Queue: 3 jobs
Job 1
Amino acid sequence: MSGPNSGPLAGIRILEVGTMLAGPYATMMLADLGAEVTKVEPATGDISRQVSDSYFASLNRGKRSVRIEIGSEAGRARLGELVGQSHALLVNLKPSAIRRLGLTYEALRQYNEKIVCVAITGYGLYGGDDPAFDYIVQAAAGIAALTGDPAGPPTLPGYSSADNSTGLTAALGLLAQIVSGRGGQVDVSLYETMLSQLNYHAAAYLNDGKRPERRPHGAHSYYVPAQIFPTARGYLALFVTHDGFWKTFAAEAGVDGFELMADRAARRTEVLDAVTAALAADTAVGWEARLRPLGIPAAAVRDLPEALDTSPDAVVTAGQFRLVGNPIRIDGYVPAYGPPPRLGEHDD
């Protein structure tokens, strides 16, 4: 939906045949920026409607909803009409279902040569139908193996990082192909998206044979100190990436030595012991208040309610729902966050 000023994607029409998270998140980001997004749903609706109203709203605000049984002859004809009026179609289903239902560029180009067809799948449009839910992909791609304490089992982030990341990647691919002025197929997989986000870990292994390690407190592979630290009360994230940061931090915390990055990396254990001892003198909130004015990257570990309470500008209203808004801020444009559509609200 467009805001008071025409959004940067005003006039762009996008169809979505999506369920749950990755696809709907991609198109919602585009709808926030002014695109007209029509959600194509079966008679029973997107399965995420069954999770909760707030869950559905968090991924589908500002869209339209039409009910089309795309497996039927009449449904395919109706979808073809919509494709003829649209710039792009984004779908996230199993690859076999995408091909069987005719949701590829080859099947739909008869209606619109310039239609951009984006397929979000687990392992690629021709990568098979193996189950590819977010947590499964995180395990398969090496994310879980890097997460958690080395003395414990591998673990998973507490949110759907693979789905969200793939949604944003798919939105980028969709827009890139629209800008090209050509129709065509765009293929985005959860698995390859997550591999791409292991960029420097993968480069270290591929070029230097260095296998990534799971480190205590989520420590960074290269920078020291850059991890979570206990304090007198609560935990502090500290990220010292260069010698200037270290000099300022060390002066404030009363830590001597380790002036050079190479020295800190080589003497990791000693550095972490010294920093841990120094941070025990104050609370996480206290250290944040002391270090941030000095330009040191530091933050007390907060839970989501605390983060939302301290970020009122990030919260928007869409109909009856309070949601986290679009993180893309564009001069002169304020999104008009519309409510999520009722099932079939725009059938006519």
Note: The mean pLDDT is 96.
Job 2
Amino acid sequence: MSKKLTILDIAELSGVGKSTVSRFFNNGYVSGSSREKIQKVIEEHGYAPNLFARGIKAKNNKFIGVIVPCLDSATTSTILMKLDNKLRECGYIPLIINTNHNIDVEIANLDNLWRLNVEGIIILATQVTSEHKSFVKSGKLPVLFVGQYCSNGYSIVNDEVKAGRKMGKRVLKSHPKNILYIGVDESDTMVGKNRRDAVFKVLMEDKLINIEEIKSDFSLETTEKLLDSYLRLKKPDLIISATDNMALGAIKAIQKHGFKIPEDISISGFGGYKVSDIITPRLTTVKFDNERAGELAAESIIKLINGEEVSKIQKIDFKFLDRESIK
């Protein structure tokens, strides 16, 4: 046959009913003679069943939806690698959807994955909206948030408060007079608010420090442009970037203006990306355990699927990497 064989074709060629062929592929009861006929047709025509199509129709199909904001982030890729490995070790198959930071696409795919009959959903969310909470409240299937806190759901988050305080205390040791904080919008609660507020709470203990803030969008390019404009008018003693990626953009702008790090301007970040260890000077930063976050996400969603107890909030620890980019 030149066309792709269907279950109906197999039934006709083997002389059995379509329901018999369906039971054959779904491990139901089929008599010995019928099984031999079906197997013979399959071997003669090299038929390969569409396992994905069969799987999404079945209950307990072992598919887990994973929604991510991007695929080019060091944090996302590290979490995904560990998440993927752990799920597959446990016999589950991740269906990964990239939203390109489009919150509408993220929300739409909650329902899309539910219609595909996945057993659970993991979201590496950039923010948690009322639509997210409504979907969780519907109880359609287990949902786990990674990187953001959902008040009525299950969440795995970085210990932002502890990390922010640690960074603030290290910064104060260098005795800066003027500090610039490069943050992100507060719609990202964990980074834009919790991380930022924890840093500021410590810095404000020194009443003589002047603190200014500009907001970027996580990208290296935008941060470089923003700081380039800022440095035309002012020069801070120290810059705190909400992420390592933004710190790299800031470093480009600092070098463009001819300033030296840390002699003229000190700088720090959050993330602990590998590149922060190979640039000169090495970046002082917070390294969150993203590998553990990926493993824990896989373990937790499987527990939720199986009806086992899971803590509503699980916090990921970090290492503080005190390097040469701060005096």
Note: The mean pLDDT is 91.
Job 3
Amino acid sequence: MYYIKKGIRMILSIFFIGTCSFCLLEWIPGDPATAILGVEASAKDIENLRQQLGLDLSFGERYWNWIYEAFHGNLGTSFKYGESVSKLILERLPLTLSIAIFSIVLVFLVSIPFAFALHNIKNKKIRNFWESILGIFISIPSFWLGILFMYFFGIILRWTSTGYNDNYHSLVLPCCIIAIPKIGWITMHLYANLYKELREEYIKYFYSNGMKKRYLNLYILKNAILPIVPLTGMMLLELVTGVVIIEQIFSIPGIGRLLVSSVFTRDIPLVQGLIFYTSTFLVLMNFGIDILYSLIDPRIRLGE
């Protein structure tokens, strides 16, 4: 019953999001046909283009056509590119998804041992120093870090390219820049959870019975990482929907850069499609997190 309720809420949420995204963009002042042809175009040309784009139909007809096609996987045709919106999104999704997955793997490869090492530091001054470093990681602006790293590693040391050049080696530097603030964020949360878990009674019981430290750490990590699961989902959402600034700096043709381009050119079908895609991904991600969370901790689905 728990999963059925979650599934119904997910479907209703997607429907509501699609409706809201369509209505909000329809109510924006201005005429897309005029924006495409320019203010000097003749009234006849503008009217012909409006008919081609379906802008001469009533609001209700346009809404029904869009919502019907959207739930059949057709998000319309881009005004700028003249191609299917779904095709444009799917062409850029693998690259953005690769950046997101690599960045998250990097975050956890660094954050988990870093959190354990930070907890094992006994000297308070040294621990406060590393906590300050993590605070800097969290608060540092990504655009400034991107420009700094590009100049130092790309221009001075020439270890990497200063932009995307159609291979995965050129994504290493952007992924590292994306991961640095997330490393500070996840490490601080995990460190706080470790501090709490290590004072639980079951840890004292296992320790007193002679359990080896590496096995004990696995038990601690399993419970300490549980509150991190929702944060990981939100972090993945932020990355998959496009880190706009990093994609702009490194000229990466991902989802974020496509969104910026569509907004500047007033490409309404593409903007609607991207909003619907990102919002649907958010709903599906939250649904997946709820399912995963309930499997890890059965008390969630039992309502405890």
Note: Residues 103-268 form one domain.
